[in-house]
């Protein structure tokens, strides 16, 4: 064998080794789309922060399947059209193995057809029942369904012997979903809806709707929407001197709502929320206690700001997805999808997740506790 042939043989082997090394360290690419800016930024920013924090934690611990993980995060600016563009880019340009997000229901519903057609697992952080009902093979979610939150509210009303309710809902995907669920559930639980008002997500005054409600015999009011609308309703209610108990959906379970409404206007408001916001009030032996305490410690230590239940959705989605990839021993989207349907007993910040081929949410109404706003803070009800 001449010297030239030996040289080329060496170069070939060296190139193969380099290729093998490069392949071995190729990161596991996971996409994420959150509303980091825009009206829903209070939902999306803590999700983005949580994902980047967990990315560093996972990589310090050796990555996934011996490979580093890379979360490619896009901001949809709370806009459904930009969500579609972001998901399209994640699938076709970034070639991610799975997607976490979007933050809000309307944006999620806008991208379900695309993720499904491309057969890329998507774990939404939004709550609308329509996201996973009917079940789509590639679509999952970690936010408990609105129907479960509505059931918690109506059960609390029944405990207080309140049977007549006025509902006021946002005209967006989240509000419409909540309205539909409440109208379906109310007769089943012996609740009468005596007023049904709607407002636009960008409306800055709801005195007209609340004045109509004031003229009814409603014993309670339920508002279903995300900020800033619910905060406006809380302020307008006080301005109109309405004393009727006010319930909010879980979509306002962050200190941002109290800040926007003003503590004096938020006083006494009731809502279903995750245990995350009342961690000191959770018994030490509760199965979620440890994961919640660790998340709060890590998040607040890194970002120097209060943890959010909405960031908790991202925390749970990342944990579930990582478990599925490990269980599948693969980053193939189909294998991940199959493994997601088999996740059982996963303890997240929101509760215990159990997925099946027929259930892609994985949470029950036990994910919620009822809380009351007292002196600008959360008080868990017994």
Biggest sheet character? 5 strands, parallel
CATH C-level category of the largest domain: Alpha Beta
Helix content: 40-55%
Tally the beta strands.
Answer: 14
Can I get a quick summary?
With 382 residues, the chain is of the alpha/beta class. The protein has helices spanning 3-24, 41-60, 80-92, 105-118, 146-159, 173-185, 207-214, 229-239, 255-261, 263-266, 289-303, 309-328, 333-340; strands at 28-34, 69-75, 98-100, 122-124, 139-141, 164-170, 192-199, 220-224, 246-248, 270-273, 346-347, 352-353, 369-374, 377-380. It is built from 13 helices and 14 strands.
Layout: helices, strands, pairs:
Blueprint: H1 3-24, E1 28-34, H2 41-60, E2 69-75, H3 80-92, E3 98-100, H4 105-118, E4 122-124, E5 139-141, H5 146-159, E6 164-170, H6 173-185, E7 192-199, H7 207-214, E8 220-224, H8 229-239, E9 246-248, H9 255-261, H10 263-266, E10 270-273, H11 289-303, H12 309-328, H13 333-340, E11 346-347, E12 352-353, E13 369-374, E14 377-380
Parallel strand pairs: 1-2, 1-3, 3-4, 4-5, 6-7, 6-8, 8-9
Antiparallel strand pairs: 10-13, 11-12, 13-14
Helix pairs in contact: 2-12, 3-4, 5-6, 8-9, 12-13
In words, what does this structure look like?
The protein has helices at residues 3-24, 41-60, 80-92, 105-118, 146-159, 173-185, 207-214, 229-239, 255-261, 263-266, 289-303, 309-328, 333-340, and strands at 28-34, 69-75, 98-100, 122-124, 139-141, 164-170, 192-199, 220-224, 246-248, 270-273, 346-347, 352-353, 369-374, 377-380. The chain has 382 residues and is α/β, with parallel strands linked by helices. The protein folds into 2 domains: 23-145 and 289-366, Rossmann fold (3-Layer(aba) Sandwich), CATH 3.40.50.2300; 147-279 and 368-380, Response regulator (Rossmann fold, 3-Layer(aba) Sandwich), CATH 3.40.50.2300. Strands 2-1-3-4-5 form a 5-stranded parallel beta sheet, with helices on both faces. Strands 7-6-8-9 form a 4-stranded parallel beta sheet, with helices on both faces. The longest helix is centred in the N-terminal third of the chain and has 22 residues, at 3-24. The radius of gyration is 23 Å and the shape is globular.
